[in-house]
Amino acid sequence: xxxxxxxxxxxASGPIAASPPPANSTGPVGWxxxxxxxxxxxxxxTVILLAxxxxxxxxxxxxxxxxxxxxxxxxNECRELGNGACWAVIVERFPQFIYGFYPEEERWRPNIAxxxxxxxxxxxxxxxxxxxxxxxxxxxxxxxxxxAACYPVIAYWLIWGGSIFGPILFLATPVLAYFVxxxxxxxxxxxxxxxxxxxxxxxxxxAIFALVWLVFLIGPLTSMLSVVPIGLVEVESRQLGGFLLAxxxxxxxxTLSLPIGILLAxxxxxxxxxxxxxxxxxxxxxxxxxxxTLLFVANSVLAxxxxxxxxxxxxxxxxxxxxxxxxxxxxEVIRGGLAALPSGQYEAADAMGLNYWQxxxxxxxxxxxKISIPNIVSTFIGLFKDTTLVVVIGLLDPIGLIxxxxxxxEWNGIIWEFYIFTGLFFFxxxxxxxxxxxxxxxxxxxxxx
Amino acid sequence: xxxxxxxxxxxxxxxxxxxDSRYRSSFIxxxxxxxxxxxxxxxxxxxxxxxxxxxxxFGFSFMRTPASYDINQTLLDYTSRDSHARAAVxxxxxxxxVAVVGCLLAxxxxxxxxVARxxxxWMLRTVVGVYVEGVRNIPLLIQIxxxxxxxxxxxxxxxxxxxxxxxxxxxxxxxxxFTGRGFYFPxxxxxxxxxxxxxxxxxxxxxxxxxxxxAKARQQAxxxxxxxxxxxxxxxxxxxxxxxxxxxxxxxxxxxxxxxxALRGFNFQGGIFARESYVALTLALxxxxxxxxxxxxxxxIQSVSKGQTEASFALGLQPGRTxxxxxxxxxxxxxxxxxxxxxxxxxxxxxxxxxxxxxDITGTLMGITLNQTGREFETLFLGMAAYLTFSLxxxxxxxxxxxxxxxxxxxxxxxxGFSVLSFFGSATGRWEQLKKGDAVMHDNYGIRGFLNLFVxxxxxxxxxLVNYVFIEGASELRPSYWDWGFFKQFTALxxxxxxxxxxxxxxFKNARFIDxxxxxxxxxxxxxxxxxxxxxxxxxxxxxxxxxxxAAIRLAIFGYTMFGARPNLxxxxxxxxxxx
Lengths: 449, 580
Known about the structure:
A: 449 residues; mainly alpha; 2 strands; B: mainly alpha
């Protein structure tokens, strides 16, 4: 053994440390080589793109920031101050872009409605609040949910104004109906034949009362009560505009389309021939025509479908049609989610002895909705972008306002600034939504990894 | 102890209607039916009451009255003296033009952008990512207005092309002009002998397809790989060029010449003129939809697992063939369905043309015609019907494609090629199947294939009838559809719908004798109803052909459907050749 070792000139006594990678394959140089200059074609693409960007960017920056004018009262003044972008028009008309022609002294109302909306959504969507202990939040959450349920009526009253009694009487409907149902249930109804004993008379009575109350009683009662002048100044629908209008239609459409879409998707998969047919016809019809035509319907035909003399508000009509439109798309998205569920889930729910609604509520829907979150959010994004289309029926959404402002003598001739501004607004809103959906998707993907 | 009591007979209680699963579904449906009928009744009552209050009536006769408005870009001849119906047709064609060109451009942009997003080049990836995210999150309407403003604002006006040292120049050897008023392209003019060149082009395409099949068969038989793509391209490109030159020797001048747009006076004359509103709409739609398609393409390519590529490399396939034989066929199955629904979206979004003054169906029928006549119901009904037809036919093509790829999946040796021949083959059944394979097991299988042709013939007939009723200017002899009484109009529409439904049954389900008879019956009633000019039709064909041929075909088919095996007329339920 000693002989052999003595013959060898060198024996490694430990592992040799790995030599560092070549200098041009790590660090910034390596990254550049890997990602920008991998081969001649790749390098050429990089150089060409870089040249284009370097050619475009300075001009854009010069136009948008360096030479731009932020304070001026007309386009001529803008042009005198600098030959870049005339952001002064946006600055000057900013309130109009937000509120449209909403009366200036009443603009606190949409602001409050907006803040309340955030609160209502927070209560409805989040299980816990930051900066608030879990127990405290759970204590106030039920009230918060009631508030969220009442919020649409509150928002309606805040934005459109009018007597306070209409909304109050409307909100009272479920409470009154509940008392009517309780009252009927307490009555003796021994006279009924035994086959009918199981009829939920209280429920039926309450429903009938609610219907009668809504259709026949609220109107006269409101006009009687409105002798007492408590209320806000009425604002007409045509005065609403700008991002207020876009947000209003978007939020109303989004919140209404989800439940209706779920019902349509369930109906389409229900296996009850008649209900299935209705759902399919509705969904395929709505999906087959452009939103513009539905807005035309809202503008000119929808009023014919209601009793003569009933003067339906234009924004309400638009919301109806936008909701119908979004619901059909939502139904297909959710149907996709339902179809993606393995049938074992349905069978397991049946095996547990759950009935249809229990199974749907506890087992099927949570999973199906989770699967379809990305598509639901992209439907929302599409709906929000589509709110710009109301301009075709003369509502003053941001794009309608652009035409309006361009027609004034002071700002006649400005084009790009408007499109860039409104485009940026929608981009920020929609991009934020899509990022949030990615976050949600990752957060909820508990089963995959 | 001796007898077990019968269980007590369950008495019916009212709550069993919604608690007992025996009655529940019927009960729910009856309630729903009742509610829907009530709602429908109320709505119709309201509509009638409202219409009566306004003194309006329902009917389509206004479609025959002169439109008396101009349309700035038309594919067919149109003057303001033409009827509203013709204006609507012009609008539909304009929508179709935007949709077709827009879909082609969007596919091109989308595929390039989708592949570029997967590029290893960081710069390219990022730039394309900015494009896709930016365009997808900004309302289409803003983009259309922006592109329109860009074209009008930045491109030169035609007058700037004038003079010795013009401010603007034309491109591509003075053949194309981009102006703020629109784009001008050269227009091919068909001279004497041009049909030979066109026929040569078709012959080249057919030859390429035949060669492709032959090459594939040869490769499967011998393993030899031929350079298919260059040869195919050469056949398609060089056949017409050679014929073009040869024809030029025999006819005066060239068989096909180009008419270049030229500046005359204050504007360009000649060539093809694409109005600025059309260009803006098409480009904006293409870039918008292209961004969505890019995402579909990216998702499709990423959906093919890396193992497929590695397995293909392990088999020794080169990267190009790996892409075309392994990755693309699998990726396309994922890409195509959303791609088609993007086409659908593009078609529907083209209705935004209204806002930049391009006269599509929304601008003519649902815009000016509606405003002029005040017929909201009728115009919106017709317009929506037009869009529904667009949508449903695109959806039908998608189903066709899905069925095709699904079948190919089973016999993957035939590859993905979606050629006209394979489509025709799937419509009729292949000729070989008349003689061999599974056909032995099924009586008269081949004849069933020809029955499919018969159904196609019916489809053509429906198209002719619809064209005759709605589109073609009414002849002097008969009142136009729009002048009929409401009842007759309604019946005719119903008949078309029923015929279409019967046809769809024949196409997609197993048609039976009763279906064929129903179809025949419907057609004749319908044709009589609309006064279809049988006389004119029969005059143009020979008597023997019409009577004897028609009778023979029908007799044969009825006899076959009655006494033969139950015919399988469907496109897709046919028997696959084994190992083809």
